[in-house]
Task: inverse folding
């Protein structure tokens, strides 16, 4: 095994593209080191991306925010501009693990680990976040929901690295929220979860909406029909009922020790409803 | 496997070591440097017994590679006491009997030190949340929380 800490993204891409064996990207390591310890992966090459310039920074740009791939989730929670603009994304990122894990884990790692139950991913999908990918044939930017393609699998090609996650600048009267169900109060894996992102007009009518569910299918689900249930209406009881029904129907969950299919369907609807109510209030809706 | 040469700072001292690329910082601290305060409870970041402070962030040293410590500042429980004089938190853990078997104690001390450095006057709830990444199977946590509260009071007055 080799451990290399390149100083440029080009060098990192070159190392990964040129490696003949298995390779792994190391940022926070809170998934990678656990998998190495368990013997599930034995990489021939570990590329630590934390020394690459810019990857450890949150930049506020004219278009919004660019969150470097090596930024720890704890740092997201300390960025007041980001918290004000995207409270749902930050609250989701802050739910991952303990304080010790928060000091290391990243939203890019959470996305690339490709767990359907990843906490930050439904919030990022609801937020319409994009991933900037550097690779052997240059850079490309894709929607975050196009990154995971199944449990533990991503659409990234050999040599590709996500270098940053982009969040748009906020339109006025916008708000987002993320909620998950776990059988205890802290530090557990979502049984099911929901992220909702809304923009309202001056009268409190929803003009744009995105709803995403976690742990409800092999990948995080963007439920377009749920957004349609909200757009063009105030968040009245009928809209919330419809949202809950559509979300419950859109789930394709598994039965496991953490929850049954029936339970996950029901709770997906309840969480979507509650997250929508919070997002609506954060957008200034009454 | 060729070793990785690492130059770092641990508890204020410049330290150099060679480690394997897949060796955790916890194993380096314990097996190469003789700093056996940090303990391996789970080895997967769940129990907090291996907690250290890395560049001002509380982390589990079992989830950090030894090679990653290059050029960084590492703080372990061994750096808390000054010679024979215990850190206030250590003294208060003794006075409140906030430990029984002691395996989790170094992790709790480091986590509590990090907590009080960032929030010198925490509420009980903030202490419980702040220490939620550290597991103790003996004390039931109450005595630990009391010790941290008492230490916070003393340290504020200092």
Result:
């Amino acid at each position: 095994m080799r451990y290399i800490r390149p100083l440029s993204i080009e060098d990192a891409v070159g190392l990964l593209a040129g490696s003949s064996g298995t390779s792994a990207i190391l940022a926070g390591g809170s998934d990678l080191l656990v998998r190495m310890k368990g013997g599930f992966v034995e990489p021939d090459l570990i590329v630590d991306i934390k020394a690459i310039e810019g990857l450890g920074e949150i930049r506020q740009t004219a278009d919004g925010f660019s969150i470097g791939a090596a930024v720890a989730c704890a740092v997201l929670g300390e960025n007041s501009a980001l918290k004000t603009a995207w409270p749902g994304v930050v609250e989701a990122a802050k739910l991952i693990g303990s304080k010790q894990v928060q000091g290391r884990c990243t939203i890019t790692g959470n996305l690339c680990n490709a767990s359907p139950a990843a906490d930050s991913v439904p919030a990022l999908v609801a937020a319409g976040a994009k991933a900037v990918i550097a690779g052997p044939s240059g850079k490309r930017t894709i929607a975050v929901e196009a990154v995971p393609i199944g449990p533990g699998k991503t659409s990234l090609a050999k040599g590709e690295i996500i270098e940053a996650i982009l969040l748009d600048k906020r339109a006025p009267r916008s708000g987002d929220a993320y909620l998950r169900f776990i059988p205890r109060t802290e530090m557990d894996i979502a049984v099911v979860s929901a992220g909702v992102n809304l923009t309202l007009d001056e009268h409190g009518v929803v003009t744009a909406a995105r709803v995403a569910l976690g742990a409800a299918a092999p990948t995080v689900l963007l439920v377009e029909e749920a957004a349609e249930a909200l757009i063009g209406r105030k968040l009245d009881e009928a809209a919330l009922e419809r949202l809950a029904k559509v979300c419950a129907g859109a789930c394709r969950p598994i039965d496991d020790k953490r929850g049954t299919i029936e339970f996950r369907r029901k709770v997906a609807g309840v969480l979507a409803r509650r997250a929508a109510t919070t997002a609506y209030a954060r957008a200034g809706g009454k | 496997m060729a070793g990785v040469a690492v130059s770092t700072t641990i508890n204020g001292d410049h330290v150099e070591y060679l480690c394997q690329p897949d060796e955790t910082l916890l194993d380096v601290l314990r097996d190469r440097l003789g700093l056996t305060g940090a303990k391996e409870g789970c080895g997967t970041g769940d129990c907090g017994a291996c907690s250290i402070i890395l560049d001002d962030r509380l982390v589990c040293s079992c989830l950090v590679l030894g090679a990653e410590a290059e050029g960084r500042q590492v703080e372990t429980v061994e750096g808390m006491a000054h010679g024979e004089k215990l850190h206030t938190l250590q003294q208060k853990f003794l006075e409140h009997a906030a430990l029984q078997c002691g395996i989790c104690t170094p992790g709790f001390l480091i986590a509590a030190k990090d907590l009080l450095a960032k929030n010198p006057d925490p509420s009980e709830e903030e202490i419980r949340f702040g220490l939620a990444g550290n597991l103790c199977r003996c004390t039931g946590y109450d005595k630990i929380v009391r010790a941290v509260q008492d230490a916070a009071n003393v340290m504020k007055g200092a």
Observations:
- Chain B has a mean pLDDT of 96.
